[in-house]
Design goal:
Layout (H helix, E strand, L loop, with lengths): L1 E2 L3 E5 L3 H13 L3 E5 L2 H8 L2 E2 L2 E4 L3 E2 L2 E2 H8 L10 E5 L4 H10 L3 E4 L4 H14 L2
Parallel strand pairs: 1-4, 2-3, 2-5, 5-8, 8-9
Antiparallel strand pairs: 6-7
Helix pairs in contact: 3-4
Amino acid sequence: MESNNALALIISPNPALKAYLELVFEEFGLAPHTEPTLLKGLHYLKEHTPRIIVLDELHEKGLDSAGFVWRIKRIKRLRRAPTIQIVHGSNERERITMEISGADHIVELPIKDRRFRRMVEELLSISR
């Protein structure tokens, strides 16, 4: 199992979102790794311990973003990794569900660059 403090996991099928997040994380000295689905993200986490996890608003067979966060927050080696949930609109139910699941931050698209970078900087300083 690889524990690398320089990894950032991005789970999204959206090429534009992945490219933006990769650039942000590279600026913070993190090596971004992307997965297109939640299930592939879970598989990746069996072998790796990223410093931060960002996931898109996804729904797959038997798993959604809230369920993904809920699962990883119950694994001792992953619970300290900050999670950022990207949401596609002001859906109050989704926001409350993500808060209950344990997501550290919920970010609505479009991402406000300065605010997002400040948030990432704070999360990385806290998670050390």
